[in-house]
Amino acid sequence: MIVSYENIEKPLVNSSGKNSADVLCPKEGCKCVVLGKETATLVERDGSKLVLPESTLPANSLLQNNIDDTHFWHVGNMMDFDNVGFSITVGTTKYLSCADCDLGPIGYHDTTCDPKEYLISIKRAKYRFDD
């Protein structure tokens, strides 16, 4: 069962503190798995870093700039992703996109963070739960 963030009826975090479902690209028809089940932890971070400058946001973007995105799936190694694209870098923020359809940004990586962290917005994803 694939559901958008707005329609989730099951817990997103399991008893071990990891994502309880596969994290997928939010674009209708794209089934790219960004993070596999039990790969990431839920964290709270600065949502303003996810906001692209207006000059770089395509007019037909499916994703809207929203600073209310403060909850993210966190991984510490880019190899933890099943599929993710790295798009433009603005300042010290490298934006993450879907590896299959290039929709983004779905998350970001602040290149100055130590230890490294890669973040995917929980609102900019769909979820596939085991039935």
Q: Can you describe what's shown?
A:
The chain has 131 residues and is mostly beta strands. The chain has a single domain (2-56, 64-128), classed as Metal Binding Protein, Guanine Nucleotide Exchange Factor, Chain A, CATH 2.170.150.10. Helix content is 0%, strand content 31%. It has no helices and 10 strands. It has strands spanning 2-4, 22-24, 33-35, 41-44, 71-75, 85-90, 93-97, 107-110, 118-121, 126-128. The strands form 2 sheets. Strands 4-5-9-8-7-6 form a 6-stranded antiparallel sheet, with no helix packed on it. A 4-stranded antiparallel sheet has the order 1-10-2-3, with no helix packed on it. Strand 8 (107-110) and strand 9 form a beta hairpin. The model is unreliable at 55-60 (pLDDT under 50).
Task: Briefly characterize the structure.
Pfam families: Mss4. The protein is mostly beta strands and 131 residues long.
